[in-house]
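Kindly draft a sequence, keeping tokens residue-aligned:
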Amino acid sequence: MADGRAPAGSGGENLLFLTDEQLRQGSEAMFFAYRGFTADPDRILMDLAYGRAHHRAIHFINRAPGTTVNNLLNILGVTKQSLNRVLRSLIADGLVESRVGRNDKRERHLYLTEDGQTLERQLSDAQRARLRAAYREAGPEAVAGFRRVLEAMMDPEMRASYARLRETGG
């Protein structure tokens, strides 16, 4: 229904009046789904002695080649020190290239190397396969509803960053 409630007889709860227990179950489902979503990339990253921070950096550098370190800091919401540790290892291992800005020499623009693109593809392929299977099982209405729930959970600034990323690729 357009008012956010499940149609009568659909087996769904009235979405406007969820109990604490239903919300707890939703939180737990999200926790376990996140574990599943990250499990395949985690196995790939473990062999390289990388973690999820490396994965997130690689993902967003791929989404917006040439992104600046400052933009990546804003997207990831991590400290400069934390991001620098991640970037140093990715650059040293030949997965990311850092170039000085043309207009502002203080800026660093980040690009994936061929090896970085290959790793990003492996990580993303694993997650896309899991998402594709889940989306196919849930159906198009559930997928649209899931996206709306995820967007509604974002803080306004995160939602704005997400919208920019979707519109411009970076």
Observations:
- Residues 132 and 170 are 23 Å apart (CA to CA).
